[in-house]
Amino acid sequence: MFDIDSYHKADTVDEAIALLSQNPDAVPIAGGTDVLVRLHGHNPDYRHLVDIHDVAELKNITMEPDGTIVICSGVNFTDLAQSPIVSTNIPVLAEGASSIGGPQVRNVATIGGNISNGAPSADAAPPLLVLNAQVELKGPEGFRRLPLHEFYQGPGLVDRKSGEIMTCLRIDSSDYKGWSGHYYKYAMRGAMDIATIGCAAACKIDGGKVAGIRLAFGVAGPTPLRCWRTEEKAQGSVADQTLLDLVSDSVLGDLRPRDSWRASKDFREQIITTLSERVLKEAINRNGVSIP
Amino acid sequence: MAVGKSVQRVDGVAKVTGKARYADDFTMPGMRVAKYLRSTIAHGRVLTIDTSKARALPGVDGVFTYQDIPKNKFATAGHPFSTDPGHVDVADRLLLTDYVRYMGDEIAIVVADSDITASKALSLIDVEYESFQPLVNIEDILGDDAPEIHKGTGNVVKTHSFVAGGNLEEVKEDCDHLIEGRYKTQIMQHCHLENHTAYAYMDDHQRIVIVSSTQIPHIARRIVAEALGMDAGLIRVVKPYIGGGFGNKQDVILEPMVAFLTKNLDGIPVRLKLDREGGMIGTRVRHPFDVKVQVGLDKDGTIKLINFDALSNTGAYASHGHSIVSAGAAKTHYMYPRAVYSCNAKTIYGNIPSAGAMRAYGSPQMTFAIEAIMEEAARLLGMDSVEFRLKNGARPGDKSQITKKPIMTCGLLDTIRKGRELINWKRKRKEWPKVQTGQLRRGLGIAIFSYGSGTYPVCVEPASARLILNQDGSVHLQVGATEIGQGSDTTFAQMTAETVGISFDKVHVVSAQDTDVTPFDTGAYASRQTYVTGQAVMRTAERLKTKILDYASIITGLDVELITIADNNIVIAETPEIAAMSVRDVAVDAYYDKNRGGQITAEVSYKARNNAHVFGCTFVDLSVDIPLCKVTINEIYNVHDCGVVINPLGAEGQVHGGMAMGIGAALFEELMVDPDSGKIYNNNLLDYKVPTIMDIPDLGAAFVETYEPSHPYGAKSVGEAPVISPAPAIRNAILDATGVAVNELPMTPKSIFKYFKKAGLL
Amino acid sequence: MNRNISCTVNSKLMTWQIDIRMSLADVLREHGYTSVKEGCGVGECGACAVLIDDVTVDSCLYLAVWADGCNIRTTEGESKEGKLSPVQQAYLDTGSVQCGFCTPGLIMASTSFVEQHKGEKVSREQIRKGLAGNLCRCTGYDGIVRAVEQCIDTEK
Coil, strand or helix: which one is B616? Predict the structure, then answer.
C-alpha cells in the first residue's frame, strides 16, 4: 500500500488542470513508474495525486498536415517505439524509447513523465534534443510552448508551472526531413538500467559536407545538453574522420560531467569522447556517407 | 531407474502454476506487521531513544528497543552446535543494539496492525546518536587508535596460519621463480528473489511456532532457544517453499526476533518481512577479501609453493566470521595439492554490513587470487595457460598436504581437456594474431577450482530421513534437508525410487520441514545435501525395502533371498518379469490385516565421516572494447567433476546459475560503502547490478563423471562450485586480450578504465 | 479512500472494493492470487509481473484502480483443465524452474512474448530483450531462453 493522502482522477486535460489548481500540493501521475517508486520510498512530496493515467486525449501520436509530428505526453514507450510515424520519420526517438528500463516499464511509463521529472538521464531527452523538439503545456492560463532545451532548468527541475500539464511534444518537419540520427545508451547493464552516458546525434549531409549537425548528451551535465559550440564548429565540414576527431576533441567543452559515486568525471569524459565519435559516425552513415 | 535421469522436478508443477506457497503466502487472522528502526550512522552509540509518540499511535501494539530485549548474546551463524569449545561461533549478537556497528543496524522495532502504521510509527521515534569514526578501510580498522567495534577484540575476530607439506623457507630457496601478487574482491549480496521473511505465534503459554524462509530450520530452532533462554523443545520452526538463499538464509536472522515479539505480545501472530532495501544491508553479504599470494615455481613449470596472506572483513558482527577464509584456504588446496601450501589468515570486523555465508564460502575470493597469480606464472614461463594447469592440477591419488588423505576421485584434468575442446582453444590460439592493436580485442581465459561436499571433518555432518509406506503403494519421504530451489527434494526422490524399487512418481517428498515432525538435519549449505543427506536417504530406503520384503515374504511364503522390488512390484530377483504381488497390496495387508503387520516405516540418522572433493574449470572467450571499457563474453563453459550426476537437467541448471552469479561477481556486482561515512549507496536492485537476461550470454555446462566410492550413488556435489571459477577465467581472458592484469573485483567498466589508463591503453 | 473496481481475472469477472492506495499486486494477493510475488516493490525485478489486456506489467508499480475494466492474467489461470500451458510446460522441460519465486512473473512475460510473436522467426537476442524486465538469480537464464524458443517453434 502506498502512503497516498489524497487522490483525484481526471478524465480530461482540463479536468486535470482544474484538479491541480485546486490541490496545489498535488502532482500528476501518469504511468506511475516514477511517482510510485518515490512513494515506496516514503517521499512526502508525492502524497497528493492527480491521476492522468486514463486521459485518452493524451495518448495519440499524429502528424499534422505540414509534417509536424505531435507526440502526446501520455504515450507509453512501447507504443512510442512501435509507432509507424516515429519509426519511419524519427527513428532516433524509437531507439531512445526502446532502451528505457525493460518491457514492463516501457509498457506503462510515459514520455511526458520521463521528460517532466527532469532527470538528466532520461533516454528520450537526447533524441528529442537533436530533433529540436518543443514542449507544449496547458495550464489555467492556456497553452504554452517552449523548446525542450529551455524546459530543462536544472537537475530534476523543469519549467512546469503550478497547475500545468505537459500535453505534447512537437517536432517540426524541417527538423527531421532529410536528417538521420542515432542514440546510444551507455549503461552498466544491458537492461533495467539508467544511462551512465546517453548520446544522440543527428545530421544532414549534403554533397559530402555537413549541412546540419546536432549532438546531445544525457548525464553529462545538470540537465540533458546540446553541444552548441561543437555543432557550430562542425557546420560545413567535410564528413570524414577529421570531422569526427574535431567533434570528439571539442565536445567536452560543451558539457559538465561530474564525479559521483556512480562514475568518476574522467571515466565519464572517456565515454563521452568515445561516443561522440561513434554515434556521430553512425548517424552520418545512416545519412549515406560511410567513414572508414 | 531414476538416478541419472533428467526427471521433472517434484515441485515443478506447483511452481509454474503459482500453487507453491512461500512464507508470505500464509497469513493468520489478526497477524501484525513488525518493522525495524535502522540506524542512520555507521558507528556510534544511541544516547537517547524516545518511543513515546510511536507507542501512542493508534494501531501500534508495541515498540521495543535494546532496553527491552534479553541480554544473552548469541551467534547467528548456521553451523551445527560445536562440542569443541575451541571451535565455537562468536556470540556477539543481541536482538537489538544501542551500540551501532553499521549503517542500518537494528536499534528498535515496531509492531503494528499494518505496514503503513508501522512506517508512520518508525518516523515518530526520536533518536540521539553519538558518532564514532566509521571504520571501513583496513588501515582504519587496524589503526593503532581505532575504536573497538567489539570490546576487547582489537577489531580482529581470529587469525590462524599453517604450513602444509614442507618447510616454507626451504621451499622458497629451492624455487627457480618466486612471484607475488595482491588481489582484492568486493562486497557482494545474494539477491535471492524472495526477501527474508518470518512470522511467529504462540500455541499456548510456552510454545512458539515460527514460519520462516530459512535454509536451516533445525539450527534456527536451537539458536532461537539460545537467544531467548528457552528450551529448544518449546520452539517449532516450519520452512515452506523458499525463494532462494545462496547462503544468506544460512544464518538465523529474523527468527529470534519474531519469536521474541510474539512472546512479548501475548502470542499474537507477528510477521517481520524485510523489504529489498533493508534486506540488502540487514541480512548478510559476502566477505570482501584482500589476498597477497606468492607462488614458487621450478623452471620446468612445476608449482612448488603457494603461500598466501588473506584478510577477510566480516563486517559489523561475526556471523560465519573466520570460517569463511579458513574454509577458502582449506578447499583451494586441492587445486594444486602437490605444492607446499602455506596460509596466514585473518578476519577483522568493520563498519559494513555483516558478512556471512555466500555460495562457495571463501573459495571464490581465494580462487580469484590463486588463478590470477597462476596466470602470471604461466606467462612468466612462456607456457600455455591450459598446459600449465594440466601439468600442476590435481590427480586421483594425490594426497592432501593438510589431511594426508588421498583424493579418491578427481576428474580435474579431464574437465580441463574437455573445456579446452569445447572452446576450441588450440585452434583459436593458432589462428588469432599474436599481437592485437585495434580498439576491439579478443582473449581466452581459463581458471580451475576445487571444492568439497559438506563440511566434514571441520563440523559434524548429520542427516536423517524417514520413509512411510502408504496404502496406495507410494511412499512419503521426510528429510530435515531443505529444498531451497537447488532441487534436493527431487534428488532424494530419485534416490528413494532407485533403491526401494518403486517408480519415481510414487515418491512424495514432504517439502516443508517442520522441526516438530521432521527428522534432524542441519540444512542446506556447504553443498552437503546430495552427498551427506543422500547417504541417509539411501540407508533409509534400503531399510524400508528390507522391511517391505520381509513382510512380503510372510504374505507370499517366498524366501526373502528370492525376492526384490522392481517397478512397484514384489518380483522374483532372478526373473524380475515374474511379479508375486504389488507393493500396494503388501501395504494394504500390512495396514489392515487383523492379526499381522502394522504401518511399514523406516528411519535412519546418519553421520557422514567423509568428504569428497569436486573439481572443474571455466573457459571463456571474450572481447574487450577498449575505449568503452566494456567486456563482452562470446563463449563461456564450465566443466564439472561432481561425481555421478543424479539429475542432468537439474545439475545443468545449478551450473548455469552459478556461472551467472560468477559473471556477476566478475563484471557487475558490488555493494558500495562510503569509506568515510559508512553510508551504503546501492542497496536496491537498480543500483546493485544483478545481471539481467541481457547481461548473461548463452552458457555451456559439461560434466566429466567419476564414481565417488564414499557415496551410495557415486555422487559428490555441485551446488556451490559453479560460481568459483568464472571470475578468474574472465580476468585471465581480459589479460590475454589486452595485456592488462586487473587485480580486483568487480571488473566493471569504471574499474577497467583505471587499469587501462595506467597501462597506457587510453 | 475506497473505490469499486470491476475486472476479469483469469477469465472470471471480479468486482472488488479496494483502497485506492493499493497496488494491483496488493489487491491480487489479498484475493488469493499469491503467484504474484513481491521481490522489490519498485518494478525492478518483475516477480510481480501479470498481463493486463495481454500486456506485461509489474503489478507492484500499478495502482489497482487502473485495473478497472481490464482483463488480468496470472499464472494460476494459464493451465486449462489440469493441463499446463505450453509456456508452463516448456519451463519444466528445459529445467528453468529452481526456487520458483521468479517463475510466475517470467511465465507471464514469456506468455505475452510468445503470443505477440506467434508464427514469427525470433532470435535469442529478441527473446532476451522481451524478457529483460525479469530477474532470476537461480537459473542463469539459459534454460528460460530455450523455453521461449521451444514455444515459438511449436507455434509455427
Answer: strand
CA distance A40 to chain B (A): 10
* pLDDT the model gives residue B146: 95
Are B668 and A189 within 8 A, CB to CB? yes
Cell of residue A254, nine digits:
560543451
Q: Which residues of C touch A4 (CB under 8 A)?
A: 1, 20-21
- Residues of chain A in contact with residue B115, where contact means CB-CB under 8 angstroms, are 1
pLDDT of residue B759: 97
CA gap A62, A169 in Å, rounded: 11
Distance CA B754, CA B268 (A): 56
All three cell numbers of B702, joined, read 559439461
Distance CA A194, CA A177 (A): 30
Give the C-alpha separation, B194 to B24, whole Å.
9
Whether the CB of A178 is below 8 Å from some CB of chain C: the reply is no
- What fold does the segment set A57-174 form as a domain? 3.30.465
How much is the pLDDT for B685?
Answer: 98
Q: Is the peptide bond before B457 cis (omega within 30 degrees of 0)?
A: yes
Q: Is the Cβ pair A33, C66 closer than 8 Å?
A: no
pLDDT digits (tens, 9 = 90+) for A18-70: 999 999 999 999 999 999 999 999 999 999 999 999 999 999 999 999 999 99
Is the distance from CB of A214 to CB of A107 less than 8 angstroms?
no
Nearest-5° angle of CA A212, CA A218, CA A220? Answer: 100
Give residue B177's pLDDT: 98
Q: What kind of architecture, by CATH, is found in domain A6-51?
A: 2-Layer Sandwich (3.30)
B161 to chain A, any CB pair closer than 8 A? The answer is no
Percent of chain A with pLDDT strictly greater than 90: 100
Residue of A nearest to B627 (CA): A274
Does the CB of A4 have a partner CB in chain C at under 8 Å? yes
Chain B partners within 8 Å of C142 (Cβ): 656, 696, 698-699
Chain B, chain C: beta-carbon pairs less than 8 Å apart = 167
* Alpha-carbon distance A94 to nearest alpha carbon in chain B (angstroms): 19
The pLDDT value given to residue C156: 52
Query: How many whole angstroms separate alpha carbon B285 and alpha carbon B188?
Result: 6
Residue spans of the domains in chain A: they are 6-51, 57-174, 180-286
| Residues of chain A neighbouring B119 (CB-CB closer than 8 A) | 3, 42
DSSP label at residue A76: B
Is B195 in the A-facing interface, judged by CB distances under 8 Å? no
The answer to whether residue B686 neighbours chain A at the CB level (below 8 Å) is yes
Which of A3, A54, A191 is the closest to C132 by Cβ?
A191
Number of CB pairs < 8 Å for A and C? 80
Could you read off the pLDDT tens digit of each residue along chain C, which spans 156 residues? 999 999 999 999 999 999 999 999 999 999 999 999 999 999 999 999 999 999 999 999 999 999 999 999 999 999 999 999 999 999 999 999 999 999 999 999 999 999 999 889 999 999 999 999 999 999 999 999 999 999 998 655
Q: DSSP letters along B492-535, please?
A: HHHHHHHHHT--GGGEEEE-SEETTTSPP---S-TT-IIIIIHH
Tens digit of each residue's pLDDT (9 = 90 or more) over A157-209? 999 999 999 999 999 999 999 999 999 999 999 999 999 999 999 999 999 99
**Is the CB of B686 less than 8 angstroms away from the CB of A264?**
no
Q: Is the reported ipTM for this assembly greater than 0.95?
A: yes
- What pLDDT is stored for residue C155 in this prediction? 56
CATH for the A180-286 domain, from 1.20.1250.20, 3.30.390.50, 3.40.50.2000, 3.30.450.180: 3.30.390.50
* Angstroms from C83 CA to nearest CA on chain B: 10
Q: Cα–chain-centroid distance for residue B202?
A: 31
Chain A touched by B646 (CB under 8 Å): no
Q: Low-confidence residues of chain B, pLDDT below 70?
A: none
How close does chain B come to A177, measured CA to CA in Å?
Answer: 32
